[in-house]
Amino acid sequence: MSSTEHPLPLPDAPHRLAMLVQEIDRQSSLGVDPHDAWATSHDGAHPVLIVGGGQAGLALAVGLRRKGISNVLIVEQSGEGQAGPWATYARMKTLRTPKNVPWPTWGIPAASPRSWFEAVFGADAWRNLTFYPTSHWHAFLEWYRITLGIAVEFDTAVQSIEGGHNARPFVVRLRTADGERTVEAEHVVLATGLEGAGGRRVPTALFAAIPDERWSHSHDTVDYSSLAGARIGILGGGTGAFDNAATALEAGVQSVEVHMRRPSMPTSSPYRWMDFAGLIEHYDAFNDHQKWRFNAHLSQVDQPATQNAIWRAYAFPTFSLHTSSPWQSVAWNGSEIEVHTPNGVSHFDFVVAATGVTVNLSHRPELSEFVHDIATWGDRLPVSQIEADQTPELQSYPYLTADFGLTSRSVENEERLRRVHLFNHGARMSLGVLSHQVSGLQGGAERLAAGIGESLFSRRSDALIDQFLAYDEPAGVVLGPRPETADDGVMSGALTNG
Predict the structure, then answer these.
(1) Could you give the 3-state DSSP secondary structure of residue 295?
(2) How many whole angstroms separate alpha carbon 203 and alpha carbon 213?
(3) pLDDT in tens, 383-402
(4) Rounded-to-integer distance, Cα 204 and Cα 201, Å
(5) Residue 225 forms beta bridges with which residues?
(6) What does the buried/exposed string (b/e) look like for 340-350 if buried means 16 or more CB atoms within 10 Å of the residue's CB?
(7) In the prediction, which pLDDT does 96 show?
(8) For a disulfide at 57, which of 191, 239, 274, 416, Cβ 3.0-4.6 Å?
(9) What span, in angstroms and rounded, lies between the C-alpha atoms of 242 and 245?
(10) What is the number of other CB atoms lying within 10 angstroms of the CB of residue 296?
(11) Contact 49/75 with Cβ under 8 angstroms?
(12) Which residue ranges of the chain lie beneath pLDDT 50?
């Protein structure tokens, strides 16, 4: 990769970052005073529990704070520095979205990806950049978390979400390194990324006979250097397949074959058409029929692997792509893996399922108490339309409110389910790309923070009215002529409103 794509830090980068932090402090002081929080813990319950300390969880946490919502608890199942895909399965060299993608700054523009990048690498490096390097994006997010003082409990996983009946808080069971504990929260946000609404799609029927140590999913952590000299086969033709192929070849494997069922690589990317503010921010204005048509088409046409991922793999003469090559059967003969395709038999030492993710909330143990009553798109559309579009997998997507809340199949659970927000890949059908994806994070975080704020205000409305009616602190107004000692500004003491 060229130096313009992956620049080196400037010699005075630490000083430049220190100056940037000072500017962040100044800009932060122009907004909500953290002591003015109006929504804080209530009867021992956190106003919001955010599950996930990656980019979506961090951005939302800052937004809630700036809106006067405090004592938000953030938990992350990975260790510190491991949140999100950036240090694990994100094997691409750069992000797939352009560098100028909006970031939710919440009135603190100095805390933006561009400000950090220019402080570390300089304005010239930013001008020469096309896509944000993945490692630098990860570094920005770590700096963002630390600099803005976002407290995250790492190595903490959610076991279950229970209760919430009759407007009561949820009881959330957490597993930590020190054991289990429970917390209460009025709202729960699942900012759990690409796999957070289901999990990895694995062709288990194909791979059942292969020893576990001989295969992986493209999202698994794999030390490809330990496979040096191996022949690797990859099922799937998306960007992840090419990223894994290139990473493996760079680590010294003998050869990689990528097999895709399509007869050719898609020639256009509908995701690029989608990348404009009108759609990103107002996708929710589509009616249900339009949203279904939109996503059915997106599933059918898909998108090509990114050009950089393709070039990176094809840089190796031992890489090959096989189209019209679905895997019909896979067998283990005791020493190698035999893959049967319409074009013949291939032999591998290791295989990778680059087969994406699935959306199915029944696979999420934290939602086991609710899953039977969570409404999906299959509940909202006629079976004839689902069958006509031949995209049955879309019917398992949850049907969400405008602020990412779950909806219910029954009236009695509606209120509590709306306080569980799916700020992850499961929101795609209902809200487009407004959840975990970088391109939609600004609009999604703003929408979710506003929705949670309105709900918390409504839940506190009676108490707020009582506080207002009981408010009788003296304003400190003094009747009579203006004292000669008064200056042109606001006087201290008697003339200062309390």
Answers:
(1) helix
(2) 16
(3) 777 777 777 889 999 999 99
(4) 9
(5) none
(6) ebeeeebebbb
(7) 85
(8) 191
(9) 5
(10) 17
(11) yes
(12) 1-2, 491, 493-498
